Amino acid sequence: MTRKEIFERLEEVFHDIFDDSGIVLKDTTTAEDIEDWDSLEHINLVVAVEKCFGIKFTMGEVTGMKNVGEMADIIEERVK
Amino acid sequence: MNYFRYEDIQVGMEQEYCVRITDDMMERFKDITGDCNPLHTDEKFAEAHGYPKRIAYGMLTASFLSTLAGVYLPGERSLIQSVEIKFVRPVYIGDVLRVHGVVHEINDTVRQIVLKVDITNQKKEKVVRGGGKSRCVG
């Protein structure tokens, strides 16, 4: 799966979780950029991303991701 | 009180309990919330609007999901994250409700338990359909 494809699928997940089809993701996107991205929605996001890509994050990864780019890095590594 | 750890929880596990809706519960709910809507407080008003008697507060019925998660499944280690509720039939004072939950999904990374919940009355009619997500604290 290419990084572009990962971002496309991630965007679909974000649109669904945050109920906002206008979200456009970049490597640098963080919770600061999306109004409803709070700690509870982060949990829902993690679960939805895991389901979407058929992967599991570690708790360290969940708490350590600084932005969407880092999330995509982990996904890229797992789906190789 | 149940003391299930996250590791004990499996999809398909079920718990249930029964509770009777009393006039005292209604009074206390009104005092706490300030909801004095006459459908819940005035028999004549309820009758005039097509109900046999005043209706129990929906959110009182919904509050039993808190007990289901916090006392039964998983019990002591539950921290409720979200609840979804549909009130499919009215509940009346004196009704005996069976509150039943089944583990629908578990999400290991975030130690989350997803319950499907149904509440039925003494006639076995479903009065609430819903579910909730809880974190099982370490």
Structure explained in plain terms:
The complex is a heterodimer of chains A (80) and B (138). Chain A is an all-alpha fold and 80 residues long. Chain A has a single domain (3-78), classed as ACP-like (Non-ribosomal Peptide Synthetase Peptidyl Carrier Protein, Chain A, Orthogonal Bundle), CATH 1.10.1200.10. Helix content of chain A is 60%, strand content 0%. Chain A has helices at residues 3-18, 39-53, 59-64, 68-78. Chain B has 138 residues and is α+β, with helices and mostly antiparallel strands. Chain B has one domain (6-136): Hotdog Thioesterase (Thiol Ester Dehydrase, Chain A), CATH 3.10.129.10. Chain B has helices at 23-33, 38-41, 43-48, 58-62, 64-72; strands spanning 14-20, 78-87, 96-107, 112-120, 126-136. Chain B has a five-stranded antiparallel sheet. In chain B, a hairpin with a 4-residue loop joins strand 3 and strand 4. The longest helix of chain B has 11 residues, at 23-33. Chain B is elongated and about 50 Å long. The model of chain B has no long low-confidence stretch (mean pLDDT 97). Classes of the chains: A mainly alpha (80), B alpha+beta (138). At the A-B interface, helix 2 of A face loops of B.
Name the CATH superfamily assignment of chain B: Hotdog Thioesterase
State the oligomer: heterodimer
What separation lies between the terminal Cα atoms of chain B?
17 Å
Please compute the radius of gyration of chain B using only Cα atoms: 16 Å
Order of helices and strands of chain B: EHHHHHEEEE
Spans of chain B with pLDDT under 50 lasting ≥5 residues? none
Distance between the termini of chain A: 7 Å
In the CATH classification, which architecture of chain B applies?
Roll
Structural class by helix and strand composition of chain A:
mainly alpha
Gross geometry of chain A: globular
Comma- or semicolon-separated keywords:
heterodimer; A: 80 residues; mainly alpha; Non-ribosomal Peptide Synthetase Peptidyl Carrier Protein, Chain A; 4 helices; globular; B: 138 residues; alpha+beta; Thiol Ester Dehydrase, Chain A; five-stranded antiparallel β-sheet; 5 helices; 36% strand
